[in-house]
């Protein structure tokens, strides 16, 4: 296997070099079209993770308009254009990544390199995908591209790591050509591209079955893995950058701390997969779930004005617990050049909540998620 990895690297160099030379006219034409249709800059770059969890800068052609809240260009769907969809469907936006292959950051075939902000949310098994170089295409991509959900995609990545061979790479390459020609699996159902990875949705305790989904509200029936009804969950958009989550447990499950803790984990991961920056949980001030929310990274937001900005009316009978879904260190500088900062120091918490915790300022235009850059592919 070690011998094949040396051969694989040689094939990557020769393949990338030949493609860059042969496709130079195509690359030049696409670059000009990007400038004409989408404006400057021509390239999209982003830090991604490859073999050994080494961070490198990925290069692609830009396929979305620049984020501009004043023009209503915030989400992927708002920023995507017909030209951008064509670029992605044809995979022409990937051509600059051949330079990453030539440099040794990537391979022609391997698990797709993903943003560094996903690193804290991998399971130990999922992290094994970084035992080989990230690739332009991989086993997950030829099994549905973005239409495959994250947990299944990572299972396929790990399967590739365990089975990598010349024959497997050749089959993936041939299937990649067919898929690109058919433009299959460019986006997930209901998404402009692909949702964020917010953490595994696998559970040994709970099963979520989606009941309804609209633009603002998603509900699930929640049961145990043995099929017993546990209750129902809901996630709703309460403001442009926050989602509210809640869990109505059945009487049998209400007193089970492990079930409530697992529900908070799973629904927080689902909230992180959206374009929201904050997950909000309104609960009675005497609720025993406050300690569970602390474990999951929630903290109390006491400022009435900021509660209103998150879509909740202040009440003395309720506590508003807020979780920042994407930490500042994961986001860095946003597309518009504004860094995310923490300038809102909170007051003392009670009943197990943290003290002197900082949350980011809630002023309009300062919230950024990984979706404001072209992530997920």
UniProtKB/TrEMBL annotation:
Q: Which Pfam families match?
A: Bac_transf
Where do the TM regions start and end? 13-38
Q: Where is the Bacterial sugar transferase domain?
A: 8-181
On whether Phosphoprotein is a keyword of this UniProt record, the answer is no
Transmembrane as a keyword? yes
Which UniProt keywords are listed? Membrane, Transferase, Transmembrane, Transmembrane helix
Q: Name one GO molecular function term.
A: phosphotransferase activity, for other substituted phosphate groups
Which PANTHER family does UniProt cross-reference here?
Answer: COLANIC BIOSYNTHESIS UDP-GLUCOSE LIPID CARRIER TRANSFERASE, UNDECAPRENYL-PHOSPHATE GALACTOSE PHOSPHOTRANSFERASE
Q: Which family does the record claim for this protein?
A: Belongs to the bacterial sugar transferase family.
Q: What is this protein called?
A: Sugar transferase involved in LPS biosynthesis (Colanic, teichoic acid)
Protein species of origin:
Brevibacterium antiquum
């Amino acid at each position: 296997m070690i011998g094949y990895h040396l051969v694989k690297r040689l094939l990557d160099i020769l393949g990338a070099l030949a493609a860059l030379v042969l496709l130079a006219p195509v690359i030049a034409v696409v670059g000009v079209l990007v400038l004409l249709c989408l404006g400057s800059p021509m390239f999209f770059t982003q830090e991604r993770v490859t073999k050994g969890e080494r961070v490198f800068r990925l290069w692609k052609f830009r396929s979305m308009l620049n984020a501009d809240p004043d023009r209503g260009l915030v989400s992927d769907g708002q920023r995507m254009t017909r030209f951008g969809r064509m670029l992605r469907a044809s995979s022409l936006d990937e051509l600059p990544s051949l330079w990453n292959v030539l440099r040794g950051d990537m391979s022609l075939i391997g698990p797709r390199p993903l943003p560094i902000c996903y690193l804290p949310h991998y399971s130990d098994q999922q992290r094994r995908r970084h035992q080989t170089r990230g690739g332009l295409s991989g086993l997950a991509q030829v099994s549905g591209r973005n239409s495959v959900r994250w947990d299944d995609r990572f299972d396929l990545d790990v399967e590739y790591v365990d089975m990598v061979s010349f024959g497997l790479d050749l089959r993936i390459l041939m299937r990649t050509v067919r898929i690109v020609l058919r433009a299959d699996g460019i986006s997930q159902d209901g998404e402009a591209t692909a949702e964020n990875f917010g953490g595994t949705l696998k559970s040994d305790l709970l099963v979520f079955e989606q009941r309804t989904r609209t633009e603002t509200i998603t509900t699930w029936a929640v049961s145990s893995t043995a099929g017993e009804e546990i209750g129902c969950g809901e996630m709703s958009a309460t403001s442009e950058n926050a989602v509210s989550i809640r869990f109505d447990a059945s009487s049998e499950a209400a007193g089970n701390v492990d079930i409530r803790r697992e529900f908070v984990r799973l629904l927080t991961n689902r909230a992180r997969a959206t374009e929201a920056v904050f997950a909000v949980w309104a609960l009675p001030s005497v609720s025993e779930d406050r300690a569970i929310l602390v474990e999951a990274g929630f903290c109390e937001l006491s400022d009435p004005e900021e509660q209103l900005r998150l879509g909740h009316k202040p009440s003395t009978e309720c506590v508003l617990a807020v979780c920042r879904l994407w930490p500042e260190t994961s986001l860095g500088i946003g597309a518009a050049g504004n860094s995310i900062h923490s300038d809102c120091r909170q007051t003392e918490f009670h009943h197990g909540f943290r003290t002197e915790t900082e949350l980011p300022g809630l002023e309009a235009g300062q919230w950024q998620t990984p979706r404001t850059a072209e992530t997920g592919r």
